[in-house]
Amino acid sequence: MRRALKTSVAMQEYTIDAGSSIVVRGNSAVLRCIVPSFVKDFIKVTSWLQDGNFNIFPSRDGDGKLHMLPTGELVVVNAGTADSYSTYQCRVTHRLSGEARESTGVARISVSEAHGITPPRFSERTLSIEARRDELVVLPCFAEGDPPPDYRWEFGGSPVPEDEQRYTSGGLLIIPRARPHDSGRYTCTASNPAGNSRLDVSLLVSWPLSARVSPALLTAGLGQPAQMTCTTTGHPVTMVMWMKNGQSLSSLRGGMSGEVFHLASVSREDQGMYQCFVKNEKDMAQGTAELRLGGELGLNSVLSRIWGTWLKGRWSCGLEVSWDEPVFYQEHGGHGSRDGGAAAWR
Fold it and tell me: Does the keyword Repeat belong to this entry (predicted)?
């Protein structure tokens, strides 16, 4: 019901607009596609159109002047008077319907002159960016100041080392193939002779979740201990939950410690199907296993002797088994007997 309602809302009619930017000469202008909140989760900005005929697509480094980020923003580097004459439209695709649209309005850049030396200033203090494993990630850092500021990136309190895995370009920190270990808080500091300012960027790199329970089939005797392990992959993992036959194990006996479920003494009620669920805010996976009872009726099922004899024109057969706990059994056709730790049937 909730999924159907969400899909119904997402398929409502909507319009897209492009937001203009006012920037001090020499700084970078950032243009954003304006999407209604009720459909935002289903819209992907695919490109920008300059002056109605020049397409700009997401890229790692841009062309030195225009750079569309994977998150949809368009950056116009070192904005000057010539940039104020261009118009910009964004293009989007609806993830469910596949429909493509252009913004109804156009964005423009207004370039103003600086009035004396001013320290760097960010339009926002924090950013949160999510990406999937192996995707291109570009973390933006654009402050306005005069003179235009320089930028420095830190991760975990230390300068970000520049190599093939992470490097900077102007105010951008570029991660060509994001990994879960790239997740965390990054700090960008913008500085010029008038002062400095800081921006915190939180990055979460997700990886599809999976879960596998081992052993997949566990046979345990009555009164014996049993243990199952749930091996998970993916990122982030915010919860691991065990269930038995669809019922949460938090209300059943047994001990849980994250990915391990342990039974100190197996009883008949413990047999059944077990599920391990691993989840985060956007993904969920499960693994399953079955617990079966071994040694039915408490017997060890150790065959001691089978014999057969010919008596008066018919075969007489018998067997003996032993067990390590008291049992009850029913006679069928012949007679049963018990002698200490053994039972015989003829």
Answer: no
In this prediction the pTM is 0.69
- Cβ proximity of 75 and 62 under 8 Å: yes
Cα 258 to Cα 264: distance, rounded to the nearest angstrom: 17
CA–CA separation, 209 vs 52, rounded Å? Answer: 42
Whether residues 67 and 11 fall in one domain: yes
Relative to beta strand 284-294, strand 217-221 is: parallel
**Nearest residue to 136 (alpha-carbon basis) of 227, 234, 51, 62:** 62
Q: Which of 113, 135, 155 is the last residue of a domain?
A: 113
Among 268, 294, 320, the domain boundary falls at 294
Q: In this structure, are 19 and 87 located in the same domain?
A: yes
Domain span at residue 308 reads: 297-345
Percent above pLDDT 90 for the chain = 65
In this structure, which amino acid lies at residue 249? L
What is the chain's alpha carbon radius of gyration, rounded to the nearest angstrom? 34
Which residues 6+ apart lie within 8 Å of 51 measured at CB? 86, 87
Residue 81 sits in the same domain as residue 154: no
Rounded Cα–Cα distance for residues 141 and 234 (Å): 29
Sign of the alpha-carbon torsion through 227, 233, 234, 236: positive
Q: Can you give the CATH number for the domain in which 150 is found?
A: 2.60.40.10
187, 153 Cβ separation under 8 angstroms: yes
Same structural domain, 40 and 98: yes
Q: Are residues 71 and 156 in the same domain?
A: no
- Within the chain, where are the H helices? 2-10
Q: pLDDT digit string (tens) for 216-235?
A: 999 999 999 999 999 999 98
Dihedral Cα 250, 252, 254, 257, nearest 10 deg: -10
Identify which of 146, 282, 135, 131 has the alpha carbon closest to the alpha carbon of residue 201: 131
Provide the pLDDT for residue 75. Answer: 95
Q: Assess whether 105 and 4 both reside in one domain.
A: yes
Read off the DSSP letter of residue 269: G
CA count, 13 A, side-chain hemisphere, 246: 0
